[in-house]
Design brief:
The structure is a single chain. The protein is of the alpha/beta class. The chain is built from 24 helices and 15 strands. The protein is 46% helix and 9% strand.
């Protein structure tokens, strides 16, 4: 036994040899640990990129004459790669998305701070994975420390071979990704971090992310030249002819006069769009108060005429949406909140909301109403610095943002999660007698995890659902969201008591689907309770992200307004802007006023989309018609896919280039 040990310890594994092994080992493990369909071409692409990086790392770890220095380098490089591998696995396990480095250090830094207990639980549950990743590095480090600080022979041929191999392999992988990979559209113009990670591996996704931050505009190139078809119906006798929701801006002239290629492409793109029409609902809420709510992890399944009568009233007596979605944009809450508030899609390279300070966010509902001299407040019943909301929310239109730590703690108990009811009752006196007002709430009571031990709202309201025919986790999910029901009941009651329910509009949407019901040790779930909540097996983003949008006012309770076309979170800003009769340019927002003649399109960051004709799953490259047996030609799929690509690219360029600041002289 001792001889075997001595033989093992005396084995000389060169630093470059270990480098060739370790990175490929990490990439392969990560690929197979994350659930998903095995696609040979995808795996081959990941493998080619991983081997090219391994060869390059091996070259770096062979260039010094001192073997000791090369050993230190290979341990450092593979150690960093191992840590990133573990971090990305844990993030994906918890949030069902990989995260870019900027998201991890800026966005997930807050997540780690706020949910350190969940992170610890996740680490404990996956201890064996961490050991598997770390073990080769530890063994190599332990073996190599016994070696002398000797100098290695001058193996120039080896170094040249490693360098040449890394270059040849990278070029091969690059060509493969660009022309052969099933995910090739995410390698260039349509780059999106999570899809790139899945298709090309961690190293390539991180590299593309850096490229996207530095040269994103140049890499994206021009917008696709695509025909945007606006349905035209023959006018009926005595039909009212409505004008267009557009502003007096000559985008064609701006395109001709600018010296910036990026601005030229933006101006030209907008100039080629058709503004949407005003309609019979334009201005029906003009001058009214607005209370906008992003409800944490809210879902349609919470709404019940008996259990949650206020939510049921708001969803069915206001404008009723029968086909609404909140896409999971990544970045957890902040991605969905960004879409609800700005009307733009988040960028995959950065935490988009955190890029807004100092930039003109002209069309947020907060800024539009603030320009009309509305009293404005924004509230959150968790830490006021979380996601840097103390820096972002005043810029998007609210004169004062209050959370736990700068005033909310005076009226809301500091438990986890905090009470939405307490937040509403504590803050309503700030604005109820200061009409017209524009108020925004970001709730937290519906946050995971869903258990009586881990969620105070689940514990507080558990008796309401204890006899429900469901698992303990689902009971606790409903109980947590019941605090929102109580909060809205109190809010409506106080508005009615003040006599302003008919003069106040409530807009409520969620930030994301309840990912805390997905299987993950981070949230204490041992199965996919999302399937139980929905009543079917969730197999794609459309099934996962369906939700409910509430737009309610006492003045429309009996008007039976129904929207039965596909609607999503990016439609909130243009729709509410139209309902309030505000001046806006429909071409400068990504979504649509749902009452206009604009073509309904719901899109996801991975380039999946939904229209009245059906659902295109970009992950599987399949189209499912809305009507069984209906045929849709490839030209239609290509046209909508190009529109989606343009919309995502436009959103990204608007934020990156402060486009609204260019158009409106930096004034929000």
């Amino acid at each position: 036994m001792k001889k075997a040990y001595d033989l093992f310890m005396s084995t000389k594994i060169k630093p470059w040899m270990f480098a060739l092994f370790a990175i490929v080992f990490d990439e392969v493990l990560l690929h197979f640990w994350v659930p998903g369909e095995f696609i040979p071409l995808r795996f081959l692409t990941i493998l080619l990129f991983a081997i090219s990086l391994s060869a390059f790392t091996a070259f770096i770890c062979s260039i010094f004459k001192s073997t000791f220095i090369n050993r230190i380098l290979v341990i450092v490089f593979t150690g960093i790669y191992g840590v990133l591998t573990v971090a990305e696995f844990l993030i994906q396990n918890a949030f069902k998305n990989f995260m870019s480095l900027s998201s991890i250090f800026i966005g997930a830094g807050g997540v780690a701070e706020g949910f350190s207990g969940n992170v610890f639980t996740l680490i404990i549950a996956n201890w064996w994975r961490i050991i598997i990743i770390a073990l080769p590095i530890v063994i190599y480090g332990f073996m190599s420390h016994r070696g002398r600080r000797d100098e290695q022979p001058n193996h120039n041929a080896l170094r040249i071979s490693l360098a040449a191999a890394s270059v040849v392999l990278f070029i091969s992988a690059h060509l493969f990704a660009h022309y052969v990979s099933p995910d090739r559209n995410f390698y260039s113009k349509d780059y999106e971090f999570n899809s790139a990670f899945t298709g090309f591996g961690m190293f390539t996704a991180l590299r593309l992310d850096i490229e996207d931050i530095i040269i994103g505009d140049e890499k994206a190139g021009e917008f696709d030249n695509v025909e945007v078809i606006t349905p035209v119906e023959p006018p009926e006798p005595e039909t009212i002819v409505y004008g267009e929701n557009k502003m007096d801006i000559d985008f064609a002239a701006l395109a001709e006069s600018t010296g910036s290629s990026t601005l030229k492409s933006l101006h030209s793109y907008v100039a080629g769009l058709t503004p949407s029409k005003k309609n019979e609902y334009t201005g029906i809420f003009k001058g009214k108060n607005l209370i906008m709510i992003t409800a944490e992890a809210f879902s349609s399944e919470v709404i019940d005429p008996v259990m949650t009568p206020t939510l049921y009233r708001l969803a069915n007596k206001g404008i009723k949406f029968t086909d609404y979605y909140q896409p999971d944009w990544g970045g957890s809450t902040t991605g969905g909140e960004y879409t609800n508030l700005t009307g733009l899609a988040p960028s995959g390279s950065v935490i988009s909301m955190q890029q807004t300070p100092g930039k003109n966010m002209y069309f947020t509902l907060g800024n539009q109403l603030r320009r009309l001299n509305y009293t404005s407040f924004a509230y959150h019943n968790n830490s006021y610095t979380y996601y840097n909301r103390n820096k972002t929310h005043e810029n998007i239109g609210y004169d004062k943002f209050i959370g736990m730590g700068n005033g909310m703690e005076k009226g809301v108990k500091n438990c986890w999660p905090q009470s939405d009811l307490e937040m509403i009752d504590f803050t309503i006196t700030d604005y109820i007698d200061k009409q017209p007002f524009s108020v925004y709430y970001m709730t937290v009571s519906g946050h995971c995890e869903y258990s009586r031990n881990g969620n105070m709202m689940s514990y507080r309201n558990y008796s309401v659902y204890e006899n429900m025919n469901a698992s303990e986790t689902i009971k606790c999910y409903h109980a947590a969201n019941y605090e929102l029901e109580k909060a809205l009941t109190s809010l409506i009651s106080q508005l009615e008591k003040a006599g302003i329910a008919d003069d106040t509009v409530i807009v409520l949407g969620t930030d994301h689907y309840p990912y805390g019901l997905d299987e993950s040790a981070a949230w204490g779930t041992d199965a996919s309770y999302l399937d139980e909540l929905y009543g079917y097996k969730v197999e794609n983003c459309k099934q996962r992200d369906h939700s409910t949008l509430i737009i309610w006012s006492g003045c429309i309770e009996n008007k039976n307004i129904v929207v039965d076309t596909p609607v999503y979170s990016l439609d909130i800003v243009p729709t509410v802007s139209n309902l309030f009769g505000m001046e806006f340019d429909s071409r400068l927002l990504v979504g649509r006023d749902v009452f206009s003649d604009a073509e309904p399109i719901v899109m996801w960051s991975n380039r999946s989309w939904l229209t009245t004709e059906g659902f295109y799953n970009a992950k599987t490259k399949t189209f499912t018609p809305a009507a069984e047996g209906a045929a849709v030609d490839n030209d239609y799929i290509k046209r909508i896919s190009s529109i989606v690509s343009n919309k995502l690219q436009f959103s990204k360029k608007v934020l990156a280039n402060d486009y609204y600041g260019v158009l409106f002289n930096k004034k929000s």
